[in-house]
Amino acid sequence: MKIKLFIISILFTHQIIAQSYKKIHNKAIVVDTHNDILMKSVDDGMVFDNNLTGKTHSDLARWNQGGLDVQLFSVFCDGKKQNPYQYANRQMDSLDAVLARNPDKIVKVANTTALLKAVKQHKIAALFGVEGGHMIEDDLSKLEVFYNRGARYMTLTWNNSTTWATSAFDETFTMNMAHKGLTDFGREVVSSMNQLGMIVDISHVGEQSFWDVINTTTKPIIASHSAVYNLCHHQRNLKDDQVKAIAKNGGVIQLNFNPGFIDSSFIKKQRAFMQKHASENDSLIKTGMHEWNIELFLFTKYSDEASALRPPLSLLIQHIDYIVNLVGVDYVGLGSDFDGITITPQQLDDVTSYPVITKALLDKGYSKRDITKILGGNFLRVLKANETK
């Protein structure tokens, strides 16, 4: 009888926890600051108000299933793209077309007031994040066009440096650089963003550029999709002094779901996988297929092997814990990089999976108030602070 009562008690407790995390998730404003579906829309013809299950991490219906309220859509191209400004506008056009077809489901917002109104109306609030300062083509008037089209942050560099800011990749791997950090024009870009109300994003910038930003900006900054260097030594991740500087600045670090940024063993395992399939990889390269698409193709084809590479969800939670323990709960959020990554952590299969993060945080002992901050409240605070003239 005692055993039976014990089992009933456990089941009842699990049911309460399940109800609790779903209730917390549904009441919170869930924000993801980095999703690359626009790249797939333009390059691969993915119409994301259609059902793209099995093809992408994201589509309009699945965002709703995952309880997402606010999406910042990444506008991205690499440094080799010809006419990057023009290409960026094509990506923005692709979102605008979806908005025009679905005004009852998703709407572009210009500020936090409009954002909260959209959430209250049960619509997804959409904004842009420009991933790479090379897309303004050294022209501040183009920065303003991006702002007017709905861009509310810009990542100063991608892996490629601009003429005015150096990237983490180049500062780490490129020898004999002409300069490191922000030039005078780079500081002007930061100041212009502050004046416009566009958040400065440091996710891809080098350490010297980072500190130049900290010493230039008058507004809180973000890392839109990064993680903790001390847990995973990747040049894109943030060291303790950088995390502390972002907290002192009043900014927020939005954690990337990319296994290579959260799992210190992933890169080695990934290389072993690619080496095992080197012959097929070489054949695909000869067809002209992009490296990113080759990796995605191979991970899909050899799904059992790829599944073994996926880090546990607990590693992402460790990065949250680390930041919270270092600087407090007010400086961390979510920037998934869905549809910009080829493989995801366990349990985070696509955008319907956001609630598992809420459950994991609740299981770890985080309060409802703190979970609400991590899911979106911290970013909304930074967005509001950047709107203040």
Q: Return the CATH class of the largest domain.
A: Alpha Beta
CATH topology of the largest domain: TIM Barrel
First CA to last CA: what distance?
A: 67 Å
Indicate the overall shape.
Answer: globular
Largest sheet: 6 strands, parallel
Mean pLDDT: 94
Low-confidence stretches: none
Helix fraction by DSSP (H/I, runs of at least 4): 40-55%
- Supply the helix-strand structural class: alpha/beta
How many helices? The count is 18
The strand count comes to 9
Give short descriptive properties of this protein:
globular; six-stranded parallel sheet; alpha/beta; TIM Barrel; single chain; 389 residues
Quick gist of this model?
With 389 residues, this protein is an alpha/beta fold. 51% of the residues lie in helices and 11% in strands.
